[in-house]
Specification:
This protein has helices at residues 15-22, 26-34, 51-61, and strands at residues 12-14, 41-43, 46-50. It is an alpha+beta fold.
Length: 70
C-alpha cells in the first residue's frame, strides 16, 4: 500500500461480521443495510461496511441500559 492509502480488507466489515459484533442475527444486520440505516458498498457480491461508518452507526444506535440512566 502506498502512503495515505487504506487497506480496505482491514478497515471494513461484512454484514455477517456486523451481526456478530453487535450480537444480532444476520437477518437483522442485513435489514439495517437494506433500509439504509447501515451505510455499505458492494465489492463483487459481498457488501462491505467501512469501519468509520460502522462506528457512526454504533454511536447513533447506542441506548443506555436502565441502570445507566440513574
Amino acid at each position: 500500500l502506498g502512503v495515505g492509502m487504506i487497506n480496505l480488507e482491514q478497515d471494513t466489515y461484512t454484514i455477517r461480521e456486523v451481526a456478530q459484533t453487535t450480537g444480532v442475527s444476520y437477518q437483522t444486520a442485513n435489514k439495517w443495510a437494506n433500509n439504509g440505516r447501515l451505510a455499505h458498498y458492494k465489492m463483487g457480491r459481498t457488501r462491505k461496511v467501512c469501519r468509520a461508518d460502522f462506528e457512526v452507526f454504533l454511536a447513533q444506535s447506542y441506548k443506555p441500559a436502565d441502570d445507566e440512566l440513574r
